[in-house]
Amino acid sequence: MRTAWEEAGWERLGEGVARRRMPGWDETVGVIAGSAGVMIVDTGATLRDGADLRRSVRGVLGREVTHVALTHPHFDHVLGTAAFAGVAVFGAAGLAELFRRDKDALRHDAVRHGVDRDAAAEAADLLVTPHHHVHGQLTVELGDRQVLLANVGPGHTAHDLAVLVPGRHGDPEIVFCGDLVEESGEPSAGPDALPRQWPAALDRLLALGGDDARYVPGHGAVVDAAFVRAQRDALAARFGVPPSS
């Protein structure tokens, strides 16, 4: 029998944890539900995406999203944030300043990748900067559930945040990786990537989740630690970084 999450177009990952692969850019959005709070991980590429996600979560849980965690500053992961008015927004340290400084670049990048020009301009104009800045690790209480936010970058960008959800009732831990990990294609190293530091970021990600965790890439299917380790080694070879010890 399909769960309420599946009926609403989400993939259930564990008790109170699900993710959706968004149309268009195949970016992953995650949701984590506790007894006193609901966190969404990334918000889609437009305000319409964000509003659709907010309605969908409310429809499944009967409650509003209370927290937003942004894994990195690319348009397909952040431009829906303004649809979550009044919600606490978390990001890696430095992300807020980047948003204030580079709104035009974010808008141009969205348009270049196919977002409607007016939709991109609206989302960039209303972009919400993080209220809470994660320097190392930060635990967020969602009532009966704790979520760990970890600044594991730099790598894919200078502001990469991972989200660790402890397992329940024998479920494995779940790690939302953002675009530090991609399954549906080779990891994208754009002009804001720090490629020689990326393998070390994946080492930190693996130390965070361990060998038994499920790793949720920013794009593509859920993977295991072996996949992340192989991608780490491939990136190291690609960018001339010595192998990890």
From TrEMBL:
Record InterPro entries: Metallo-B-lactamas (IPR001279), NDM-1-like (IPR050855), RibonucZ/Hydroxyglut_hydro (IPR036866)
Keywords (A to Z) from UniProt: Membrane, Transmembrane, Transmembrane helix
Database matches in Gene3D superfamilies: Ribonuclease Z/Hydroxyacylglutathione hydrolase-like (3.60.15.10)
One Pfam family named in its UniProt record: Lactamase_B
Top-level taxon of origin: Bacteria
Membrane-crossing segments per the record: 78-99
Domain Metallo-beta-lactamase: start-end pairs: 26-219
Name of the protein in its database record: MBL fold metallo-hydrolase
Organism whose genome encodes this protein: Streptomyces bugieae
